[in-house]
Amino acid sequence: MKRSFRTLLPVAPIAVAVLFAATSTPRRAVAESATVDAAEKAEKCTTRLFTAMVGEGATPEALASSNPQASFAALVVDPRFQERFSRFINSQFNATPGATPAEDASYYLARFVLTQDKPWSDMFVGRYDVAPTNAQQAGSEARVTDDPNGLGYFHSRAWMVRYAGNEAAGIRIVAAYRMMQNTIGLTLAATTNAPEVDLSASGRKAAQCAGCHYNPWFALDKVAAVFGTKTGMGDTTRFTAPAGGPQSILGGVMVSNDRELAEALVANEAFNVNACRLAYRYLYGRIENSCEGPVFDACVDAFKKDKKITTALAVVAKDPTFCE
Ligand code: HEC
After folding, report:
1. Is the distance from the beta carbon of residue 190 to the nearest atom of ligand 1 less than 6 Å?
2. Which ligand 1 atom lies nearest to the CA of residue 211?
3. In this structure, is the dihedral angle defined by the CA atoms of residues 228, 232, 233 and 239, taken in order, positive or negative?
4. Does the Cβ of 189 fall within 6 Å of ligand 1?
5. Measured in angstroms, how far is the CA atom of residue 121 from the centroid of ligand 1?
6. Is the pLDDT of residue 5 over 70?
7. 218 C-alpha to ligand 1 centroid (Å)
8. Residue 138 above 50 pLDDT?
């Protein structure tokens, strides 16, 4: 009760001011300046939408439109958007650019997902492979192919080798972390790799390490245990299937291998939240702020329904607040 009273109060003076302005200015002038304002606002909005979506200015036709956000439908299928968004995703999913095209597997699969209008979850659980077009040349252009053993790009060799890590027993902690970062946006700073600390699995059980490696819901060593291990380096790197039993991770989910892990991650609410975070980062260059809660929630709800990243982008870009 008290709350609605308080929010109603400022309305009265504003309404009075508007009435006063309307009666004290000749009618035609008011109407004209309102049209100019609306046209200017629409132009600004169009420019903003084009810049955010394709990184370029708007066409004259789009600028003349009185409904700027209607341009979203054309922009979201524009090859410039598909290219730009895929590059953006690659920059969010990897700390540095890949040394070869296939190492930037997330770029190629993102572009595939967008051009084929696939669900975002295909990035992480879809049965694909991202590999060099010329198997003899690691540096050749990469492409996406169907692969019954594929797990998004997580089973693509260049990605696996890139994130194989250097752990002494071959435990793939680096891959475990990267998979959680890519799917649900988990962000950790690997604090300790100082030479004097014991880097072995038992060393990581020390209090100052277990807080990331063993105890939390994202316990890196437990998650890594479902990956199997790696041996060798570079071109000779080999990967084994997981040998340990199922692990209880992500707050009580039983997971035996990396496919079950990826499926559990994309089924988690954090996956939906991260998709909308990515939409905000792409469109605004930052994550959502607290007053954007209602739009953010609408984004999460819409994304949950069809798991399309373009649906998440649509909710944010077509909301009136995007043009304010
Ligand atoms: C704040 C969380 C955090 C804490 C605390 C932490 N680590 Fe890690 N650790 C990470 C992350 C994240 C990675 C993955 C790094 C990457 O992606 O390169 C990692 C990776 C590792 C690896 C594997 C490196 C590789 O190349 O395979 C070792 C070994 C390791 N940590 C040892 C330790 C030890 C020992 C401690 C305690 C002294 C410790 N960590 C504390 C987050 C943490």
Report:
1. yes
2. 5
3. negative
4. yes
5. 27
6. no
7. 13
8. yes
Give the residue, by CA position, lying nearest to ligand 1 atom 17.
Answer: 174
Dist CA 149 CA 128 (whole Å):
8
Distance 177 CA to ligand 1 centre (A): 9
Q: pLDDT (tens digit, 9 = 90+) per residue, 254-296? A: 999 999 999 999 999 999 999 999 999 999 999 988 889 999 9
User: Exposure string (b/e) for 266-279, b if CB count within 10 Å is 16 or more?
Assistant: bebebbbbbbbbbb
Query: From the CB of 215, is ligand 1 less than 6 Å away?
Result: no
Q: Would you call 85 exposed, middle or buried from its count of C-beta atoms within 10 A (0-12, 13-18, 19+)?
A: buried
pLDDT for 95 beyond 60 = yes
CA distances for 32 relative to 14, 28, 29, 63, angstroms? 21, 6, 5, 19
pLDDT at 25: 46
Distance CA 9, CA 67 (A): 32
Q: How many CA atoms lie within 13 A of 217 on its CB side?
A: 11
Q: Hey, how many other C-beta atoms are within 10 angstroms of the C-beta on 46? A: 24
Please report which confidence band the pLDDT of residue 32 belongs to, taking 50, 70 and 90 as the band edges.
low
Q: How many residues does the chain have?
A: 324
Which residue, by CA, sits nearest to atom 6 of ligand 1?
209
Query: From CA 248, how far away is CA 278, in angstroms rounded?
Result: 28
